[in-house]
Amino acid sequence: QVQLVESGGGLVQAGGSLRLSCAASGIIFSINTMGWYRQAPGKQRELVAGIHRYGSTNYADSVKGRFTISRDNAKNKVYLQMNSLKPVYTAVYYCHSALYWGQGTQVRVSS
């Protein structure tokens, strides 16, 4: 059974930082591309960042220079370091791999 479990969300002031984690089980983590998506109220889910199994990364233009995605294949985890947060980043953040989604973790950025 595949499980993706996110953690690390919360309430932070604008300009602050959060680090999201996603623990994966039931998949061969090391060969999978992993991604972070977010969905703000009333909006579609969108890709925030992705990381290939060999470590190459891609980011949404809106977060370039602020967010960093990384992975630890030994721990079956993927991370999203979020710095210089803005209120517009408020959303539920989801971990994704292949056909699978986590349950999401709420990030709220206050002004």
Task: Give the topology.
Layout (H helix, E strand, L loop, with lengths): L2 E5 L2 E4 L4 E8 L8 E6 L6 E6 L5 E3 L7 E6 L4 E6 L8 E7 L2 E2 L3 E6 L1
Mean residue pLDDT: 95
What's the number of helices?
0
CA-based gyration radius: 13 Å
Q: How many distinct beta strands?
A: 11
The coarse silhouette is globular
Show unreliable segments: none
Distance between the termini: 40 Å
Taken in chain order, the helices and strands follow as EEEEEEEEEEE
What is the percentage of strand-forming residues? Answer: over 45%
The percentage helix is under 10%
State the major sheet: 7 strands, mixed
Q: What structural category characterises the helix and strand content? A: mainly beta
